[in-house]
Amino acid sequence: MHCIESKNLSKTFDKIKAVHDLSFTIEENKITGLVGRNGAGKTTLLKLIAGYLLPTTGEINVFGRNPFNNLQVAANLIFIDDQLALPENLSLEETLAAVGQFYPNWQAELARALLDYFSLQPRQYYANLSKGMKSSFNMIIGIAARCPLTIFDEPTVGMDAAVRKDFYRALLKDFMQYPRTIIFSSHLLSEIEELLDDLLLIKAGEKYLHLPLDELRNYAVGLTGRESIIRKMTGQEQVLFQQKLGRDSIYLVARNTFDQQTLQQARLQGVEISPVATDDLCIYLTAQHKGGIDDVFSRN
Amino acid sequence: MIALLPLLTLLPAILIFLVLGKTRVSFRRTRFVFTVYLVFLLLCTGAAFITAAAVETESALNKEITEIDPETSAGEFYAALSEGRVAQLPEVEKNGYWSFTYPGQELSITTAEGEHFEPSIVIERKDINDETIEITSYTSSLKFKGNYLVSPPTVRRRGEKYLELTNGTSNVVTTYIFADDWTMQQFSADRRFPDYHWKLHSLLGEQAVVIRVPKDLQVEVGRGFHVVSLINSDS
Amino acid sequence: MMSFHETNLLSVTKKQFIYKLQANLGILISLMIIQLLALLLSTAGVSSMSVGTNLTIINLKIISGDIIIVFTLIWAFIVGYNTAGNAYRLDYHFVTNRLSSNLASGCFLLLTSLLAGITATFCGVLLRVLLYFWRDLLTTKGLSMAPALLMKGSYVTVLYACLLSALGYFYGMLAQRNKALTVLIPVLFFGSLFAAAKDTRAAQLFRQVLVFYFSESSLALFTLKIVLTVALLFITIILFTNRMEVRK
User: Using an 8 Å Cβ cutoff, are C125 and B41 in contact?
Assistant: First the structure.
């Protein structure tokens, strides 16, 4: 069953198209990573899914319903981001209790244990927490709520690497026990890669890629070698990224549509073939210029 | 009054905003403090009932201020005064008595220059010539905290044939009275603000000075007096 | 495996109400402070009159809970306004929709109005008891009010508090949608109040509005007027916010 279905979804703020003609479906009980550059429309898309915003045109369905102002959808969804506003006069443990009552699957013990593990004092106040600790607390809420649809929008802001790792693990463990649909938007694709089933990549408000992560790993190959040889191999539309390494050698990332024979031949001609890390790939895919930042400087 | 309304609204509004902005009291503490407040108010209400029950039975004051009828009490006072039986009125009390031996033939009663002597005066001739002038001050004013609201006049002899009566010291009394809240008054039968003016006037009561003189003494009353009557006088 | 969880408006509203109560309970401390402040101001006399002859002057200070009640009602308005802001800021993070948020706010304001109205009236009793011990009373009449009168006073104050907090909530919601209204409405309001001193059409209208509520002498009709006004305000807000985008 589809958890989320979007058809030609657009959202415009003051003539700026934050989300443009976006169509996709997200299956139930999968963890989907939402990736895109700053301002690509990730947060707007997530807020449309959560029913906070009204689509300008198009349609979005969550659990087969229009999520906007929908109580049934709201009851099955939790949206965690770094804008989470919590009552100032409640301590962390009181906040957990107050929030927990909204969710029938709330895991009070798990929340308490996570609080303890991440060294958050139950008597502390949210307002006095550091940025990273706030993020930790938000994520605890997100995990413990065990909502059929859990949305994390940049949930790791301010957390240090160790804490992030622990959280990914906690999320994955809890997901294994109680599978649910999770959307996770993050800049740090390399870190969350292990977590994800699918990846939804958007660029300037439009869908660019939506595919299982396994496929993404084989989506492109890196070719390093003499420019003339590599150019011959690749058509113009295949090239995702290129970087001159010397006078006539080049590093080029191309869509992996090569057959084994071509690759074998290339290797013989001294071309080095390497896999492309997914986060690098996403950067190349969403870049405006094929040469990256170098383009700006090479022009002068 | 209505021009003050904006100020009256603005001031507390600003205060409340300040207080609201500052209060970040924890949930538990709020619940505790507010419960204490509620209990305290309830106890005070209980205390009010008990105190009021204890006080109202012993205080005659409560009865008087509400049941006084200012018009009849003033009328009675002056009627009794002119008939020489003011001392017999139940609400009237003597608040000053002076007597002088005076062998002379003529007496001139004066007050301070340019002043008006507040109490009414009655001059009463005795049946005998005993060479004694007796001055009695009466008042129907209320006793407040053990003192009369009005102070007795000063009486003294001056020179050969003058008797000087001057007003007593002036009093300013601040007192308090309870009224119902406007939320209660809005639906009471008696919606108008109670008319305290009349009642207060009657609290101040009336004042009179009775001067008893020997039978044949010539009495001359100077300016600034309000003479109610001359009793037993031929002229 | 997670299954879709069906819910209903009533249960969500109830949860939202409890959440709101926990989040905003701190305002009761400000209610207390405001009432005690008003009480302090009232000890000097809510109104006064002087009566006297040339010799004796009686300054009569009239003591009532009026200032406490007025302060409490202003508090109720501001709480209504704050609740609207907090609803907009806090509600939509967890299970809610616009309707349940407004209903929960309504329940919350009903509760605060109830507490405010009752405490305001009983704070007036506290004032009288204090004055009995501290000042020279002309008469102790009115020190204790009949329970029926206290109940009536509380009831009416609660109704006024409901009206004021509904107005505050309405204003707060308008302000959430359009920041310009935040400035415009007080300017109009205080403008018309100042104008009320003069005799303009706005002033007459304002006076008529006041008379409509303040001069009603039938308790039943008064109740009806307040209930209808509050209902009207809330229905307007619910319709008005139904398409409102949140957490922009």
Answer: yes
Instruction: Reduce the DSSP state of residue B153 to 3 states and report it.
Output: coil
B76 and B35 within one domain: no
For residue B126, is it within any domain? yes
Q: Could you give the CA distance from residue A192 to residue C105 in angstroms, rounded to a whole number?
A: 40
Lowest mean pLDDT among A5-19, B20-34, C112-126: B20-34
Residue A94 has its nearest CB partner, among B24, B25, B27, at B27
Q: Report the distance separating Cα A142 and Cα A125, nearest Å.
A: 18
C129, C132, C133, C136: CA torsion to nearest 10: 160
Which of C31, C58, C71, C152 is best to mutate for the B interface (most B CBs within 10 A)? C58
HEC readout, C74-116 = HHHHHHHHHHHHHHHHHHHHCCCCHHHHHHHHHHHHHHHHHHH
**Residue B73: is its pLDDT beyond 80?**
no
Residues B95 and B51 placed together within one structural domain of the fold: no
Within a domain: B23:
yes
User: In terms of domains, do B209 and B95 share one?
Assistant: yes
Residue B151, in any domain of the structure:
yes
Q: Minimal Cα distance from B21: which residue of A?
A: A88
Size of interface B-C (CB pairs under 8 A): 255
Shared domain for B91 and B176, answered yes or no, is: yes
Query: Which of left, alpha, beta for C238 (phi over 0: left; psi -120 to 50: alpha)?
Result: alpha
- Looking at the structure, tell me whether residues B15 and B128 fall in a common domain: no
Closest approach of C3 to chain A, Cα-based (Å): 7
Domain total for chain B? Answer: 2
Q: With a cut of 70, say whether residue A153 has pLDDT above it.
A: yes
Chain B, residues 4-43, CB within 8 A of chain C, namely: 5-6, 8-10, 12-13, 15-17, 19-20, 23-25, 27, 30-31, 33-34, 37-38, 40-42
Domain boundary among B11, B31, B58: B58
User: Can you tell me which residue has the tokens 């004092």?
Assistant: A121
The interface predicted TM-score (ipTM) is 0.87
pLDDT of the residue at C16:
94
Lowest mean pLDDT among A157-161, B60-64, B151-155: B60-64
Q: Quick one: B36 and B108 in the same domain? A: no
> pLDDT tens for residues C68-111?
999 999 999 999 998 998 888 888 889 888 999 999 999 999 99
- Name every residue whose Cβ is closer than 8 Å to that of residue B182 and which is 6 or more positions away in sequence: C64, C66, C69
Nearest one of A154, A113, A156 to A131, comparing CA atoms: A156
| Boundaries of every domain in chain C | 4-47+57-177+216-240
Measured between CB atoms, which of C2, C26, C246 is closest to A146? C2
Sign of CA dihedral C75, C92, A84, C178: negative
CA distance C190 to B162: 67
Task: Identify the bridge partners of residue A27 per DSSP, sorted by sequence position.
Answer: A2
Helix, strand, or coil (residue A22): strand
B30 contacts in A (CB within 8 Å)? 89
Q: Identify the residue whose tokens are 């309707």.
A: C99
Q: What is the pLDDT of residue B218?
A: 85
Q: What pLDDT is stored for residue B235 in this prediction? A: 45
B20 to C129: CB separation less than 8 angstroms, yes or no: no
Domain membership of residue B38 as a residue range = 2-58
Together in a domain, B38 and B96: no
Question: Is the domain of B53 the same as that of B81?
Answer: no
Report DSSP letters for C19-77, one per residue.
HHHHHHTTHHHHHHHHHHHHHHHHTT-SEEEEEE-SSEEEEEEEE-SHHHHHHHHHHHH
CB contact under 8 A, C145 and B180: yes
Interface check B60 vs C, CB under 8 A: no
Q: How far is A133 from chain B (nearest CA, A)?
A: 20
Is A91 within 8 Å of B26 when comparing Cβ atoms? Answer: yes
Calpha distance C164→C157 (Å, rounded): 10
Taking residues A234-261, report their average pLDDT: 84
Q: Does any domain span residue B77?
A: yes
